[in-house]
Design brief:
heterodimer, A: mainly beta, six-stranded mixed beta sheet, three-stranded antiparallel beta sheet, globular, B: mainly beta, seven-stranded mixed beta sheet, four-stranded antiparallel beta sheet
Chain lengths: 108, 119
């Protein structure tokens, strides 16, 4: 079955730039999406179609995709950005959806 | 207000069945793509199933043949019928709307309902 691979953890100091990567064989042809999940809460969509930001998501959140890798960038990370982040995409058939394993972002 | 409210979770023995419900308000389930996503205790998110507005359905390999997604248009409600439950189905189950204007990203989520499979 199709898999998306993320680093288990990323740590930055407040104000620094955090980058979270996601690799998958179908990413050259399929969009990546990113979700933020804070402890005990439902996930929130922060990036869709590789680099688009839903209304209400701060501008410091951005996304990109190159080849088999997608990247979520948080420019000037804030303490409130501490959360688990999941990439999401589809396999080449377009019918199987998959989440990456998740990356715990620590900002301190 | 656009909202999803799940119900139907609980404690069930291995091999048993359970039906989860997801009541929608503020939008029409039958006109939307909808998904179920689960999260086992201390683990990451796992996509489970989706239903297109046209009615086509798709499942993760881990639940194929055991789970069935459906909807009741008159009640504006999404369902997940879960059969032959196993211990590794224990999780919080979320329903989510996949919004076309956001590339079918999941923009509205319920609060989740907990399913525990144990003897």
């Amino acid at each position: 079955s199709y898999e998306l691979t993320q680093p288990p953890s990323v740590s930055v100091s407040p104000g620094q730039t955090a980058r979270i990567t996601c690799s998958g064989d179908a990413l050259p042809k399929k969009y990546a999406y990113w979700y933020q999940q804070k402890s005990g809460q439902a996930p929130v969509l922060v990036i869709y179609e590789d680099s688009e930001r839903p209304s209400g998501i701060p501008e410091r959140f951005s996304g990109s995709r190159s080849g088999t890798m997608a990247t979520l960038t948080i420019s000037g990370a804030q303490v409130e950005d501490e959360a688990d982040y999941y990439c999401y995409s589809t396999d080449n058939s377009g019918n199987q959806r998959v989440f990456g394993g998740g990356t715990k972002l620590t900002v301190l | 207000e656009v909202q999803l409210v799940e119900s139907g979770g609980g404690l069930i023995q291995p091999g048993g069945s359970l039906r989860l419900s997801c009541a929608a308000s503020g939008f029409t389930v039958s006109s939307s793509y909808m998904s179920w996503v689960r999260q086992a205790p201390g683990k990451g998110l796992e996509w489970v199933s989706l239903i297109y507005s046209g009615g086509s359905t798709y499942y993760a390999d881990s639940v194929k043949g055991r789970f069935a997604i459906s909807r009741d248009n008159s009640k504006n409600t999404l369902f997940l019928q879960m059969n032959s439950l196993r211990a590794d189905d224990t999780a919080v189950y979320y329903c989510a709307r996949m919004e076309q204007q956001l590339g079918f990203g999941m923009d509205v989520w319920g609060q989740g309902t907990t399913v525990t499979v144990s003897s």
